[in-house]
């Protein structure tokens, strides 16, 4: 697993600042990997939480300078828990903004205990590319994996490396289940699926099953961390499976060393700026997020808001909605777009925010940060 374009914060810049970063734990979750990429230890103190909501809580309470939360996955879409907290219906997170993003390639592993003896086992080491499997390894294992390429080194991807007939329970995070549906339906239809708070929590639960009848879909690091056997590797539906994480902080706390300092053009972003000079609109180097509601009964109210972005020449990169919980079937919308409120020489972002005053019922700016995939 790799994270694209590591963008780490220098240790010197962070002397005398709060260096705690909260992420969804336990350790060895994908959130942990994403956090380590952006906030290398030991300069940063990484603190696992039990839920995504706790990441928001700690940042808002000032107990963590930053928080890292999954936002969307390329296969399964938006992470509902994160959107729910960004919606901030109870006004608990009034100061929280997004100040950066991290992309992580996500390859899921099936972890559990091998049957002992397991005559079908070939190579259980995490990340091994040389493992192969007998045609009778598991229910319907004879058929080649349909979802990954068929090169020889990929033969062990997406197929069981050991018998799975003893697995009765399969733990994982709902997002991970959503990214591995083909494998689970094909090889583990006989097992009960149990959603838990993270993939590393899933591995912890599987490791704690004395009968060895539980398995987890989790990361290869969780295999090592919890001493589990790798029963299958790269079980995601799509090999290009990628999750994008948001880095959160409190608004106005982007002082020296803060990651958002780079989002408004700090030194660390300079090389990147030069690379991107060719971009037609310089705002493509950045992204911003706003949430808003529109008058529910007014025809075209949502279109009016979207038209403001078109009018200002701002490219949208994602649109989401969640129930407003004010009245049934009324929604709060999120629009993410290219451009920064913090570096806005042409005034396009400032302009669109003024437009929102006119056409939206309520709106909130949720941050501007460097586009870590500009030019793609
Ligand atoms: O469960 C984890 O390991 C997480 O960090 C959460 C999460 C998510 O919510 O999207 C992160 C990345 C993967 O997409 C699957 C799960």
Sequence-ordered SSE layout with sheet pairings:
Blueprint: E1 20-24, H1 30-38, E2 45-49, H2 52-60, E3 66-73, E4 77-78, H3 80-87, E5 96-105, E6 109-112, E7 169-172, H4 174-179, H5 181-187, E8 192-195, H6 199-207, E9 214-218, H7 220-226, E10 229-233, E11 242-250, H8 259-263, H9 270-275, E12 286-293, H10 301-311, E13 316-323, E14 331-338, H11 348-359, E15 362-370
Parallel strand pairs: 1-2, 1-3, 7-8, 7-9
Antiparallel strand pairs: 3-4, 3-11, 5-11, 6-9, 6-10, 12-14, 12-15, 13-14
The structure holds prephenic acid.
Prephenic acid is lined by residues 24, 29-31, 70, 73, 79, 106, 173, 175-176, 198-200, 243.
Keywords, separated by commas or semicolons:
D-Maltodextrin-Binding Protein, domain 2, Alpha-Beta Plaits, single chain, 24% helix, 5-stranded mixed sheet, alpha/beta, 376 residues, disordered N terminus, binds prephenic acid, 3 domains
Précis, in short:
This protein is 24% helix and 25% strand. It is an alpha/beta fold.
Structure description:
This protein has 376 residues and is α/β, with parallel strands linked by helices. The chain has helices spanning 30-38, 52-60, 80-87, 174-179, 181-187, 199-207, 220-226, 259-263, 270-275, 301-311, 348-359, and strands at residues 20-24, 45-49, 66-73, 77-78, 96-105, 109-112, 169-172, 192-195, 214-218, 229-233, 242-250, 286-293, 316-323, 331-338, 362-370. Strands 1, 2, 3, 4, 5 and 11 form a six-stranded mixed sheet that branches. Helix 1 (30-38) links the parallel strand 1 (20-24) and strand 2 (45-49). It binds prephenic acid (PRE).
């Amino acid at each position: 697993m790799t994270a694209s374009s590591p963008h780490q914060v220098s240790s010197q810049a962070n002397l005398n600042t709060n260096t705690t970063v909260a992420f969804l734990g336990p350790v060895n979750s994908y959130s942990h990997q994403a956090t380590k990429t952006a906030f290398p230890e030991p300069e940063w103190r990484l603190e696992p939480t039990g839920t995504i909501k706790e990441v928001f809580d700690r940042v808002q309470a000032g107990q963590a300078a930053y928080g890292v939360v999954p936002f969307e996955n390329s296969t399964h879409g938006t992470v509902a828990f994160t959107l729910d907290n960004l919606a901030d219906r109870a006004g608990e997170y009034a100061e929280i903004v997004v100040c950066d993003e991290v992309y992580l390639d996500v390859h899921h592993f099936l972890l559990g205990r091998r049957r002992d003896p397991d005559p079908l086992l070939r190579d259980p080491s995490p990340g091994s590319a040389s493992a192969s499997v007998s045609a009778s390894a598991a229910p319907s294992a004879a058929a080649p994996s349909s979802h990954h390429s068929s090169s020889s080194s990929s033969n062990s991807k997406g197929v069981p490396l050991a018998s799975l007939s003893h697995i009765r329970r399969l733990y994982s995070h709902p997002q991970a289940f959503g990214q591995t549906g083909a494998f689970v339906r094909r090889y583990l239809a006989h097992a009960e699926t149990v959603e838990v708070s993270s993939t590393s929590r899933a591995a912890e639960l599987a490791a704690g099953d004395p009968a060895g009848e539980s398995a987890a879909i989790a990361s290869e690091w969780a295999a090592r961390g919890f001493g589990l056997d790798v029963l299958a590797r790269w079980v995601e539906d799509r090999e290009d499976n990628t999750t994008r994480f948001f880095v959160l902080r409190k608004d106005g706390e982007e002082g020296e060393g803060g990651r958002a300092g780079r989002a408004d053009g700090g030194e660390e972003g300079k090389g990147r700026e030069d690379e991107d000079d060719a971009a037609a609109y310089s705002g493509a180097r950045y992204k911003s997020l706003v949430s808003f509601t529109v008058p529910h009964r007014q025809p075209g109210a949502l279109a009016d808001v979207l038209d403001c972005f078109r009018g200002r020449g701002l490219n949208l990169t994602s649109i989401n909605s969640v129930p407003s919980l004010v009245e049934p079937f009324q929604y709060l919308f999120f629009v993410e777009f290219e451009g920064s409120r913090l570096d806005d020489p042409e005034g396009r972002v400032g302009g669109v925010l003024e437009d929102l005053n006119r056409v939206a019922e309520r709106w909130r700016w949720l941050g501007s940060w460097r586009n870590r995939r500009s030019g793609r």
